[in-house]
Amino acid sequence: MTNFNFRYATNPTDFIKYSTDELRNQFLISDLFVSGEINLTYSMYDRYIVGGIMPNASALALETIPYLKSENFLDRRELGIINIGGKGVVTVDGTSYELDKKEALYVGKGKKEITFSNAGSDQALFYINSAPAHKSFPTKKVGKDNAEIVQLGDEKYANRRVLYKLIVNSIVETCQLQMGLTELKEGNVWNTMPAHTHERRMEAYFYFGLEEEQTICHFIGQPQNTRHIFLQNQQAVLSPEWSIHSGAGTSSYSFIWGMAGENLDYSDMDVCPPNQLR
After folding, report:
1. Residue 70: how many CB atoms within 10 A of its CB?
2. Which residues of the chain have pLDDT under 50?
3. For residues 202 and 260, is the Cβ–Cβ distance under 8 A?
4. CA angle 259, 210, 61 (to 5 degrees)
5. Where, in this chain's numbering, is Zn(2+) bound (predicted)?
6. In angstroms, rounded to a whole number, what is the distance separating the alpha carbons of residues 80 and 139?
7. Is residue 188 within 8 Å of residue 208, measured between CB atoms?
8. In terms of CATH architecture, what is 2-276?
């Protein structure tokens, strides 16, 4: 079963007038993982798609949706997949790729049949991002051992973390999709601080590994005019190109960042010092 919804893009002038409910309706993506379902959100930010896939006893096939107006999901798109659950299998046009927890798979434009299934006793949970593509690149699996690993932050500022670049242009050839995973060290709560924007790319954040009954506060908006959204475990938030994307949790957690736009340079960002945020 495939469910899908649509989100319009928002400009920063209208954004500052939103109530809490309006903010959540525009940017929060909840209920990503439901047994036996594929749940997709199609966003007008770079026509980015965010989704969650939770197979049960039967494999789930990624089928096209009306917004794409294409015979197959990847006729004009590329796809990034990161498994955050138990061992699973993604089959792409007859070739199977086994993904352990926190392993990734890139699937290029033009692939026709993509299915998702469990491969062990623990439930697989496939988090996916997709962006339009103008060229076809090979399918490639990326494990954490293949990732570019960056140690970031400082205990002093409660933001010590490890960043795993998984689907990035230095590892995998892509048109515009970039994805990675960041793990907060225990006792550290801040991600992406100092905050930044990158007007050449939009972004989506997916939070997971949060302790039960804890929460994450995600900050959104222009650096001098911010708002916040509280998220629960395994929820995502869309981040416009004009917005910061930063958060703090009441316990340690991990998050997956995905982005698309006209620039593949990871370091292309405009940093805002913490004492200048408003």
Report:
1. 12
2. none
3. yes
4. 55
5. 196, 198, 203, 245
6. 10
7. no
8. Sandwich (2.60)
- Please state the pTM of the whole predicted model: 0.96
Q: What pLDDT, on a 0 to 100 scale, did the predictor assign at position 263?
A: 75
Domain residue ranges of the chain, discontinuous segments joined by +: 2-276
Binding-site positions for Zn(2+) read 196, 198, 203, 245
- Tokens 């050449």 belong to 200
Indicate the length of the chain as a whole number. Answer: 278
pLDDT at position 200: 85
Rounded Cα–Cα distance for residues 210 and 202 (Å): 24
| Count of C-beta atoms within a 10 Å radius of residue 10 | 19
Residues annotated in a binding site? 196, 198, 203, 245
Contacts of 73 by beta carbon, 8 Å cutoff, 6+ apart: 62, 63, 64, 65, 79, 114, 130
DSSP collapsed to 3 states, 192-259:
CCCCEECCCEEEEEEEECCCCCCCEEEEEEECCEEEEEEECCCEEEEECCCCEEEEEECCCCEEEEEE
